Every structure is written in C-alpha cells, then in structure tokens.
Amino acid sequence: MSENKFTEGPWQRDKYGSVIAPDGEKVAFRGVTIMCSGSFDRIAEAEANTDLVAAATELLALLVESQTSIGGDWRQRRDIAIAKARGES
Fold first, then answer.
1. Which domain holds residue 71?
2. How many independent structural domains does the chain possess?
3. Residue 39 domain-assigned?
4. CA–CA separation, 24 vs 27, rounded Å?
5. By three-state DSSP, how is residue 73 classified?
6. pLDDT of residue 1
7. Quick one: DSSP state of residue 39?
8. In a domain? residue 66
9. Residue 1 domain-assigned?
10. pTM to 2 decimals?
C-alpha cells in the first residue's frame, strides 16, 4: 500500500478523456470535469483542467525531487510534465 493518500501515478488521459492510473483504474471521470464546467461554453476549460489533473502526480514528484537535487534529466522531465499539464503532449 502506498504511503500517499492518493492514487500512484503517473496518470494519463485515456481515449475517452478520463484520467487513469498506471494499472488502468480511473482516477477522475471525464463526465465530472464536463459537469463541473457549468456550461457548454466552458467545456474547453474543463478539458484543460483535466490535463492539469493528469499531470499532478508527475508535477508533485518533480517538486519533491527538486528538494534534494536538480541534476540529471530533471529539466527534460520538468518540461514534459509542464507540457502535459498544458495539454501540449
């Protein structure tokens, strides 16, 4: 069992737009983000929020790692995580 109180990552969006864990279990359903958007005019914003949620575990891991070291491939992994959070990957 994880020491974290959240589902281990990295998370991804599946072909239906839901956020899933490495084992394929759903972390967040696409329908939730759409319903939370409040209107059809805000669906693009809801989709962007889902991208951000999908990147959360990687962003957290990089922040924790940066507490002790900023060497190696950290910058590349940082850039990948940022692109994912922005929906660019």
1. 12-85
2. 1
3. yes
4. 9
5. coil
6. 40
7. S
8. yes
9. no
10. 0.68
E-state strands within 1-89: 12-13, 19-20, 26-28
Measured between alpha carbons, how far is 56 from 54 in angstroms, rounded to an integer? 6
Mean model confidence pLDDT for the chain: 81
Cα–Cα distances in Å, from 56 out to 9, 10, 38, 39?
8, 8, 23, 25
Are the beta carbons of 53 and 85 closer than 8 angstroms?
Answer: no
**CA 19/CA 34 separation, integer angstroms:** 13
* DSSP for residue 14: -
Q: For residue range 25-67, what is the model confidence (pLDDT) as tens digits?
A: 988 777 776 677 777 788 888 888 888 889 999 988 888 887 7
Residue 3 lies in a domain: no
* Whole-number Å distance between alpha carbons of 81 and 85: 6
What count of other Cβ atoms lies within 10 Å of the Cβ of residue 69?
A: 8
| pLDDT at residue 3 in the model | 62
What is residue 6's DSSP assignment? Answer: S
pLDDT digits (tens, 9 = 90+) for 77-87: 888 888 888 88
